[in-house]
Amino acid sequence: MTPTTQTTLRFTGDWPFWPVLGTALVLGLLMWLLYRREIRFHPDRGAWIPAAARSLAVVLLVLGLAGPVLRHETVQRQLGRVIIALDASESMRLTDSDASKSRWQRMEEAMLKGEKPLLKQIADKSDVEVVALRGSQIQRLWWHRNGGKDTSGVIPTSLAIQPDSPRTDLDSTLKQALGPAAAGTALVMFTDGQHNTQGSPEELSQALKSSAVPVFPVGMGVEVSPPDLSIAEVTAPESVFGEEVMRGRVTVQDLVPAGLPGLIKIEGAAGIQLSQETFTTNGRGERSFEFSFPVKLLPAPTIGDKNLRVCSITVAVAGEKSSIEKTRANNAAELAFHVLEKRRKLLILDGRARWETRYVHNHFDRDKNWEVTLAFDNYKSGNENALVKAFPKDEDTLMGYDLVVIGDITATKLGAERLKWLKNYVELRGGGLVFIDGARGEMKSWSNSEAGALVPVSWTAATTTPTATLMKWELQPDAERYPALRLSESASANLMLWPTLPEARWSAITSARPAAVTLAKLGGNPALVFQNTGAGAVLYLASDELWRWRYQVADLYHQRLWVQIASWVAAPPFQAESGLTSLGTDRLRYRAGEQAELRVRLKGPDGKLVRDAQPRVTLLRDGKETATLQMEPDTTHAGVYRALSPPLKSGEWTAQVGSEPKLTLRVSDGGNQELSALTLNRSLLETMARNTSGRFLREEQTSELPDLLQAIDRKQVTVTETILWSSWWWLAAVILLLTIEWLMRRKLRLI
User: Fold this and answer.
1) Tens digit of each residue's pLDDT (9 = 90 or more) over 277-299
2) Domains of the chain by start residue, with CATH
3) Whole-prediction pTM value?
């Protein structure tokens, strides 16, 4: 904007202005009267000029005592930046009971209609960007910046999109829309507030508070729920074995009048009925129902992925009042799962039955996806030793394992040949290995063994024995790069959580080797140390007291950490293999809007892993190619390459490298989460507004927005002053007046 300058005259001297002005006028008048006596009979018509010049000079000289100053105030105005975010999710299509138009239509009218539309009022005074929130992505619809110098066009009279997103994300999408948050920015949201994805809008609003970015949510929708029955969530394993029973849970949102008959039905392909349950509505909100059916009831598909099974789950009000529901769009969900042929394999070897290894065994033994072999040292020699008996009989068998856990045993228990197999398992096969040290100090012998290169630490002192001194777990900065160590949703909360977990009573005293990374410490000593070795990964635990984390919370942290460690360190699974190429994903089932992590492992003709390739993976949706992704080397496992897919839409996806192998992914809408709640989430929106010093508005209050947004308009004011009484200009004026007086006196022959 063009700066504007305002100039004012001020008096800042030691003498008050009004007495000085009065004195100046009196003296000026006295000077005029004195001159008047001398020139009153002079015939020249300009005889009054010397008197006036002398009087004005006296007035200026006396006014100097009041300290006249010219103040110049220049205002540079910078328009505030306003982001207007429109919720383009399916729930905005709903027509509330007290309105004749949908929420989206009412929002459109409030913004774009009228003699002077709301959007124009805001754009006239601020820089404006209008974006639509569509799942996990945003779509920029219109912008108007720098007073119209940067604009996408005239103000639209209607929105060119429709609300069709199956999810509402009020966290990551708002971060995308805002970019680097800075003072002078405001966020306006037109939404019903039904956030149903990952992330926390409350945490986002706290972050915006520190950046001085106020949030003004405009709530769309009613606060009293209409009669409706919907599927809120379906919880079931993403994979089972063919001879097992699929067991799961359906969470239903029951908001219809109590006493009506309801029905939950699960059907497979060709209408095969798998499960059915009747119930009576109670109108009290969420309720859960368990279901089960034999997997063998479902026939294998004739085309596509032979291991993929797809079922449909429906819930509805039965009988003559079945039409009472507000919408039927949220009454169905898809259940997709894969039928597994083999389990992942875990080998656990320990010198004795310690609490840590017993709990680790129990965690994975309960998981149907894992086959666990456990053995403790029976102190016998040779092939009679229990550790030797449990160890795979040959190297090829060992290569079939995904993860090996070694406890407090000496390396000599396994013998040189088996240690060599173990080294090849990690370095060549890309297997995962976890060492759990013990108070007996048996593990030190591994440093000088055939498998010494696998150990990521060196022992610097005698292993400590359990004492009364408690040691807190302290995550190190490098741990932020490893999601497997995250036990809380945010990195900052996770960093504060670890020191609060039950302390350890002992720890081995070691130092990390140069190629290793220390991720956590106990008492200042490395406690969790990670190292890439060849194609595989090795994790060292300096204490066997993680099991203490179970105190009062059972599996909450201990099991979660071990499951995440196994997923991280173990050889990555590959669901499809063809020749020398293996293809896999982090999961087999996704919800719409989620991203898939794709993995490829390549081997050369000699069977060795290829570490310098540049593979590309192609994604097809319902048979049509949608993207080709360049894969990057995996930092944990050599010879493995990874790529992250774009957000996936619902449907059947195929990932393939070249022509083979191919892997089928199923992406569903996850049970119509968007329509599981049909009301305005006012509490969430009010919290966001309160956290940022903004204000929550109902849709009928949108006319107040332009005035509220003016508070963010930034103005830069520059003030300069010219001191007149001591300036050359002031003195020049006095000299000029006296000069005029002298010249006129000469002309009038008064001197």
Assistant:
1) 999 999 988 899 999 999 988 88
2) 4-76+719-747 (no CATH), 80-224+679-712 (3.40.50.410), 229-337 (2.60.40.10), 344-569 (3.40.50.880), 576-668 (2.60.40.1930)
3) 0.54
